[in-house]
Amino acid sequence: MAEAGGTQRHYRAPCPGCGAPVEFRSAQSVYAVCPYCQSTVVRRGEQLARVGKMAELFEDFSPLQLFAAGRLQDQPFTLVGRLQYAYAGGRWTEWIAQLDGERQGTLSEDNGSYVFSLPYALTQEAPPADALRVGMTTALNGQSYTVASNEEAALLSAQGELPRLPEMGQPFRVVELRNDKGLVLSLEYGSQPPTAWLGRQVALADLQLTGLRSESGKEEQGRAFNCPNCGAPVTAQLESSKSVTCGSCKSLIDLSAGIGAELKYAVQDEPVKPLIALGSTGRLEGSDWQVVGFQHRMGRSPGEDEQFGWSEYLLYNRQKGFCFLVDAEDGWSLVRPTTGAPVVSGGGASARYLGTTYRQQYSYDAETTYVAGEFYWRVERGQRTSNRDYAGPKGAVLSLERADKELTWSLGNRLDGAAVAQAFKLDARKDQFKRADAAPLSAASGLGCGTIILIVVVVIILLLILSTCSGGSGSSGSSWRSTGGSYGGYSSGGGHK
Q1: Which domain range does residue 307 map to?
Q2: Which of 78, 180, 203, 494 has the fewest CB within 10 Å, making it most exposed?
Q3: Is 483 part of any domain?
Q4: Which residues form a coiled coil (predicted)?
């Protein structure tokens, strides 16, 4: 049955599996999932054929749902389908957006925020997936990109109408390329030739969305299970969580394979108490953020024996996604992963992003030493990354964090410790939030004791030599100033699709 509706015809036919009506709102949709029996059906003219059964969706706390409508640059769209994928680091979701006319786009998760993408026609053949190594730069359609990730993914489940349907559980390569203009180019090698999608970061509030899932309609039971180490009950409140800690024994539990799978865990025998309690809500930059995760990390600069540490709080807002509140010895900062990838030049001496140049300050290796709460990526104790921090105007810091298969950039801005205490209603403990400013001599706190002693000894020897050479006569004087700084103040907390 076909119905005329504005500029778009609606197709409806009985499901071959259960007889319930299955509707196609988009002429571009070839597949659909029956909402009653989860049969996967393909449209052939005005007839439907059953081609399999879809696995059940992992329900989440996302405000998005089918038939939510919005506007992208004044063009209306409706969410008509949802795809859930799995990769080594966990899962991510793509929503199929039907725009007026003949176009469909995707609204997808990206490092805790969202990217809206449209099909992109390549003017040249896409390079083989194996040729696109993480960190390399390449040009496509006259634009320069950095390869940000190269992962194997597989379709887990789907809902609604779908323009394409990768074979369930069959792995295929997904390569993401990003550039300094904030563009994200995704190449999906599940078909030949690979499909390409080009997108930009969007804020849900800017899409003027209606028909969102209401707060009151959200299921509150979460995902409950017993800790595989001590047996105590554990509840993961956010469906997007790939890791969670047991409140009783503090074990770190891997949820990336799903709760029904055999749960892997790691015992954490050296608990660190966060200064801001998990579950706390604070108002920063005009929005309410809830602390859902905490991790403590240690860093070491190449060739140095001494380590330095800092803490990261994972914050969540339903409309704005995730960000990081970073507590380092030289101050507090609010950090968000960037959508694009800066252009690095001068052998890594500088990075340029969205028209601003940042100069490299520090290079160091980082390791996660303690984890509490929930995380939207699979975080592990002992997880290691290579990091670089670049300083920009007005205290802004651009940071690169690199793992084996993925690199992530983030942008952070300074916060006053007293403002952080006030935001989380901890004014009575505001003295605990005070941090040293990154003044020239404050760097000593970031240096090892042995290094400080050595510097002092060298300075004393130099002064003795100078006083001997001057023979006690009037000296022109000399001054010495450390040019170092404290490290580890900014980190993206990991890059995850």
Answers
A1: 270-429
A2: 203
A3: no
A4: none
**Statement to judge: residues 75 and 25 lie in one domain:** no
User: Same domain for 294 and 423?
Assistant: yes
Count up the domains in the chain and report the number: 3
Neighbouring CB atoms inside 10 A of 177's CB total: 27
Structure tokens at 271: 């608990």
User: Are 125 and 167 contained in the same domain?
Assistant: yes
Give the residue from 349, 403, 335, 344 showing the smallest Cα distance to 180. Answer: 344
- How many other CB atoms are there within 10 angstroms of residue 125's CB atom? 8
Claim to verify: residue 276 and residue 420 sit in the same structural domain: yes
- Please report which helix (H) or strand (E) contains residue 469, including its range: helix 449-470
- 398 in Cβ contact with 388 (< 8 Å): no
* Same domain for 422 and 363: yes
Residues in the chain: 497
Res. 55 pLDDT band, cuts 50 70 90:
low
31 burial class (0-12, 13-18, 19+ CB within 10 angstroms)?
buried
What's the farthest any 2 CA atoms get from each other in the chain? 105
Say what the pTM is.
0.67
The answer to whether the bond into 16 is cis (omega within 30° of 0) is no
Last residue of a domain, one of 400, 429, 458: 429
Contact status, residue 350 vs residue 187, Cβ threshold 8 Å: no
H/E segment holding residue 460:
helix 449-470
| pLDDT tens for each residue of 255-310 | 765 655 555 655 566 677 889 998 899 999 999 999 998 999 999 988 888 889 99
State the DSSP string of 82-137.
Answer: EEEEEETTEEEEEEEEEESSS-EEEEEEETTEEEEEEE---SSPPPPGGG--TT-E
Among residues 61, 102, 109, which one has the least CA distance to residue 85?
Answer: 109
Do 204 and 82 fall within a single domain?
yes
